[in-house]
Automatic annotation (TrEMBL), chains A, B, C, D:
Lineage: Bacteria, Thermotogati, Deinococcota, Deinococci, Deinococcales
DNA-binding region: 33-52
Species whose genome carries this gene: Deinococcus aetherius
SUPFAM superfamilies in the record: Homeodomain-like, Tetracyclin repressor-like, C-terminal domain
Entry keyword set: DNA-binding, Plasmid
Name of the protein: HTH tetR-type domain-containing protein
Stretches assigned to the HTH tetR-type domain: 10-70
Amino acid sequence: MKKTLPEELVAKRTRILDAAARVFAEKGFHATTVRDVAQAAGVADGTIYNYFENKGGLLLGLIDPMSRGARGQVDPAALEGLSLRDFVQVHLLGPLKLFEADDFELFRVIVSELMVNRELRALFREHVLTPMTGLAEEAFGRWAEANGVPTPRAALTVRVLSSLVFGVILQRVMGDDLLTENWEALPGALADLLVGGLGGEAT
Amino acid sequence: MKKTLPEELVAKRTRILDAAARVFAEKGFHATTVRDVAQAAGVADGTIYNYFENKGGLLLGLIDPMSRGARGQVDPAALEGLSLRDFVQVHLLGPLKLFEADDFELFRVIVSELMVNRELRALFREHVLTPMTGLAEEAFGRWAEANGVPTPRAALTVRVLSSLVFGVILQRVMGDDLLTENWEALPGALADLLVGGLGGEAT
Amino acid sequence: MKKTLPEELVAKRTRILDAAARVFAEKGFHATTVRDVAQAAGVADGTIYNYFENKGGLLLGLIDPMSRGARGQVDPAALEGLSLRDFVQVHLLGPLKLFEADDFELFRVIVSELMVNRELRALFREHVLTPMTGLAEEAFGRWAEANGVPTPRAALTVRVLSSLVFGVILQRVMGDDLLTENWEALPGALADLLVGGLGGEAT
Amino acid sequence: MKKTLPEELVAKRTRILDAAARVFAEKGFHATTVRDVAQAAGVADGTIYNYFENKGGLLLGLIDPMSRGARGQVDPAALEGLSLRDFVQVHLLGPLKLFEADDFELFRVIVSELMVNRELRALFREHVLTPMTGLAEEAFGRWAEANGVPTPRAALTVRVLSSLVFGVILQRVMGDDLLTENWEALPGALADLLVGGLGGEAT
DNA sequence: AATGAATGAGTCTTCATTCAT
DNA sequence: CATGAATGAAGACTCATTCAT
């Protein structure tokens, strides 16, 4: 057994990635030096480059775990029995939780770079956005069929949900106090509003 | 004694700011050098610093015109006669148009920096977000009163609208084809969905 | 007069170039850091880049003065009266002197990079080699005509001369003691040998 | 006890050296990384250091085979019967062929480093230049004696030959078209010129 | 002997900012 | 106020070399 066990390498890669997430979240991508990441990961500067093409690669590397997080969020089977309102709430809750972990600091960094970095954008779209939307559409279709409800604009509906999620996080990150204070109740309230309509009487 | 007329100075400031907006939109904030801006504005590098504290000041300077744009969007008087659906649509349309100008390129840059730059964030909140939300809440209140409709959660409703706007732009900027293709019809469709609710039958 | 006088800039450029020549000659191109050059020139690191594209540009910049040196070496008018032997000697002497200045240290560096740097090679060929060879051919032609001598292979003859020059310098630079010791007498001896032929009795 | 046969080690050393020659010739010495050589040789990076002191050692290692090539070029016995012109031509041809192999690419690299690397220079002088010159002088002496010809300046004559060889290669490497096109005929023409003299009538 | 991951010193280059003219 | 040359701190990245396995 001559080779360094791949597991160790994977572990180190992960350690670097974790460090990167931490430091990026704290200081932002541009304000973070490669050395910052290296020190946070407890490796030498050059070691970073054994695992990632360049500094930007660290960011790209952050996407993949995120996509796994996104995928794991939904359990299609469990959804069929839900009411529309609960169905919606679940789909709001999932993504909301995904970034809540570190108080949305990583969200900040990722979005910041997404806006400006085409490659990252493509990767994010491919690995996170498209799967998420796809799963949601599928789930929605299945749910609708199971409940004998017509779904005239499933695709649009799903976009509304995801847009709402992003928009809400964005506003919260921007420092909207009302959202911050009512964060816990938000998914429910939003679900009510969406299902019942602005004009109507929600639960 | 010929003192340079302030107007001229204001004009030059504006010229620099326009140049900055243009170049930032094209290359992003970090990828743009002060020299890029200077050249685009037709002034010397050093001149920039006669009008702005530093590079970041250019960004801050971009906020103010934007706030005027935001404010000008709504005409409270004209809103009262509208149906709820149309009221909503108008409030979606305005902000959507605000950034559409240069194909959302400036939106990209601003959001990118907002995520990461506390000072810019505060300024943006103060000059753009808060006024916008405030105006919308006020308009909504006035509309509700005029139409004898109760508004149990005006604040939340307004957040839903603005979140939706941000989220939708975000997703479009991310490259969502469905949104891009149906962009024109989007405000109407969203208004329908919001007013009628997911469960219901829209107009 | 607002502008920095171009003369000053040219002077500074020259100062940097001189410094580069000095430092390169001493340590070689690769072993020299840009900072070495900057310090030798008494400017800041960054200033170098106001005058040259990059480190390699310093090398390219060294070519041009050299070409002027090469050109100035010959005075066509004075050549016509010479004997063939003296004509040859003059043409050996010129280039030999060109690099003798700093004990061939710069020759070392230039040749070292010429061997490996295509761009430098092209520039050197265009600005130094071709003009030199051209001038020599022309001078040789004029001399031959003036002296009623046929020149069956002027081009080849000129190559032989220049090759000999380069080869001789090369071998001296390589540390050939015999050449070093007899350096002063060399042009004459070579001229004798070339004109009279290996077999024969020189003038 | 199975000890690795020295032959195998020598073979691997040779393989590494061949790889080095190939890669150096292609990319130049400085532009080549030790890893490049290792990969070209099919070994691990670290293995290189079991056979060579350091990267420079690879270059030094290239000299030795070259010296063998240089030595093998001449067969003293066969030379005695030649005419002076043919004797000269043979001595031009040999070294010319030595580097022709890979289109002078290796010549480029070696000369490039020779110019700048004292240690390499010493080694090259000792193992290649001095033997070559010595052999040639010896051969020339023997030939002169055998043909009853006085050799007043054997040493200088030999230098002229080797200088011419180096100079001609140098100019060809520099991109002299005339030399490139007439390469095959060159040794003959040079021999004619040298033996007959510039003034005279060649064979 | 072979491996190849880790190291970290070393360099080029960029660019925001200053300030003498 | 305008200019733009000078500055020099800062940082990404490379790569020869080492050494534990």
